[in-house]
């Protein structure tokens, strides 16, 4: 894991001091380090630009497979030519240079913004936008047969002008490859990775679910007092519900559902691909993530005539019929809303709405609608004004 720190400048970067390649750079000092490497800011004199140089630590260069893993990171990253993956410039024996990324980690963004009074809704919208770009990046890597395998908030950088970078491909591996070393971060890894089993695209789906989980509640999927405890929880796939981790937050029901499905301990129950997860996130953005999604079978009555209403339904998929006194008087198709009068007052239902097929709906409660309207000042004001006029018309 990399972290900012004040460090003394080490000796000249690797390679012999008289090597012509080394003289192209001027060391400006180290600014981050992890367990295996130190990252320096250097000036590339020929192009007069500041870039980053990742240097393998001297004391561990002779460890078995350490140098091979380091070089593999550079070579895999260099093959992934994508706007959200930091480009690699040059590779030496124990170092490589890359673009210098300025910004904040996803962890620091969430820590700074998610607890600010009144800022959660806007911040979660930004976080979802970032994760949609992460999905694009991973889909690109998966198409080329590569898994990231270390998705965590520290490895996701957010630039000043909207840039998003998925960092640290140090333990990336080909899809389906089994890793016997146990590389990864126990607090964030999927169960199959923790158990040293083969991983596939659904393993990175789990990782994106963990990033969404962190944005929602601020925790890790596998929270334990020690590394060993977190590893045991990861092997079992035990994830505490985000509502229990952050009971003081009004969490968007749809985003909670997406995060928990992505982190299902059984890979077969997760989204099958990163693009399927991205599609769900996009649908949540379009249709309102404060509204819970529910499935109902053919023949089920969403609304019963004479019942007291307390919510409305937005039909996402399937078809329903509207019945009055047992007679069909209309149909409900995807994109339409039924039961909206209940959002104004708990009046008796005037019709029955029955599913003609299996359906998917968004449940619109007054509380969820209010949360959604707070995201847009003008839309909220418009809807409230229309609601007042509707109530006045009913009374007269």
Question: Structural class of the secondary structure composition?
Answer: alpha+beta
Assembly of the depicted chains = single chain
User: Beta fraction of the residues?
Assistant: 15-25%
Question: What is the CATH homology-level superfamily of the largest domain?
Answer: Transferase(Phosphotransferase) domain 1
**Number of separate strands:** 19
**Shape, per Cα inertia axes:** elongated
Order of adjacent strands in the largest pleated sheet? 1-2-3-4-6-5
H/E element sequence: EEEEHEEEHHEEEEHHHHHHEEEEEEEEHH
CATH-defined fold name of the largest domain = Transferase(Phosphotransferase), domain 1
Note poorly predicted spans. Answer: 1-20
Second rung of CATH, namely the architecture of the largest domain: Orthogonal Bundle
Number of helices: 11
Estimate percent helicity. Answer: 25-40%
Quick structural gist:
The chain has 396 residues and is an alpha+beta fold. It contains 11 helices and 19 strands.
List keywords for this structure.
21% strand; 4-stranded antiparallel beta sheet; elongated; 3 domains; alpha+beta; Transferase(Phosphotransferase), domain 1; 11 helices; 6-stranded antiparallel beta sheet; 33% helix; disordered N terminus; Jelly Rolls; 396 residues
